[in-house]
Amino acid sequence: MTLQARVFFALGSRLPCGLAPRRFFSYGTKILYQNTEALQSKFFPPLQKAMLPPNSFQGKVAFITGGGTGLGKGMTALLSSLGAQCVIASRKMDVLKATAEQISSQTGNKVHAIQCDVRDPDMVQNTVSELIKVAGHPNIVINNAAGNFISPTERLSPNAWKTITDIVLNGTAFVTLEIGKQLIKAQKGAAFLAITTIYAETGSGFVVPSASAKAGVEAMSKSLAAEWGKYGMRFNVIQPGPIKTKGAFSRLDPTGTFEKEMIDRIPCGRLGTIEELANLAAFLCSDYASWINGAVVKFDGGEEVLISGEFNDLRKVTKEQWDTIEGLIRKTKVTYNMFTRLTIAIAQVDRRGNQLPYYLI
Length: 361
Hints:
With 361 residues, the chain is of the alpha/beta class. It has helices at 70-81, 93-107, 121-134, 158-186, 199-202, 208-227, 246-252, 257-264, 274-285, 303-308, 319-332, 338-351; strands spanning 61-65, 85-90, 111-115, 140-143, 190-195, 233-240, 296-299.
C-alpha cells in the first residue's frame, strides 16, 4: 500500500458482503462489489432495509455535513426515506446538488443543498442561517465531514496537521456551537451525532492528526451531553470500523490486499455496509433513543476487541497443533503459569517443523 503525503477525503461509498458479488445501496451511490469475506460472514448477513417504521422522522429536519457522498449520502437517503426534510452541506456544490436531486426524486421529500467549508466559522454561521431559513431549526445534526491522510508522523508538516484538525475537530466544533446557540435561543432541542472511528479511542500510528482530532470530537460530544442536556440536546458518537468506500479504498488499497487483512481481523468475517451504519445513525437520532446520551457506539464487527486481546492470534492455531500442544503441556508438568506452558509447547512444536502463526513463534 503506497503512503500518500497529501490529504484525501474518504467520503466514498461502502458495500455489503455475500458469498457472491451482489448489488447494494438502493439510493444511488456507485455500485461496488466484494467477495473476499470469511466463511463466518454467512452468520452475519447485512440487512439492507430500513430498521425504523415508515415516517419515523415525519416533520423533522436533519442537517448532515459531508452529505453529498459516502456515509453522509447513505444517512441522508435513509432519513429522507423515513420522512425527514434533509439539508446537506459540503464544499462541492455540484456533488451536493446531484445528491439532493437524486434522493429527493427517490423519496419524494425535499433535500436542500448548502455549500459550506466547515473550517471557516463565518461560512458555518451563514450556512446555519440558511438552514434555519429554508427548513427551520434542525431536530437532527450529524457531524460527518472528515478528512484523512496516511503518512509517517515525522513527515508531517504543520499545514498537514492543521488541515485535518481544522476539518475534523474545529469543523465539528464550529457547526455544533453555532447550531447549539441557535437552538438554545429558540428553546428547541435536538439530537447530535458525530461519526468518528475506532482508533479515536485507541490511537493509531500513521493517522495521528485524524486520531487526535477524532478523540477531541468524542471528548466534546461527551462533555456537551453532560452540559447541554438541560437545553434538550443530546450527543452521541458512532465509531465505524472498516466500511468499504470507493474513495478511500481506491487510494488506500488499490490491489485489495489490505482488505483481506482487515477482514481477517474482524470476527464477523466481513466489512460493514452503509445501510447498517445508516440504520444505527437513524436509531440514535430518533425518539426511540431519547434516553441515550453521551454514548460512544462501536460499529466494527468486533475488530477492536480482537486486535486488543493479547492472545487472540491463537485463533490461527489448528486443531492438530492444539492436540500436539496439549500433549506436550501434559508432559511438561508445568501447572502454574499458562504462558510458560504455551511457550515451552510452542517451542517444541516449532522445532518439529510444524507451522505456527508468527505471533506464537
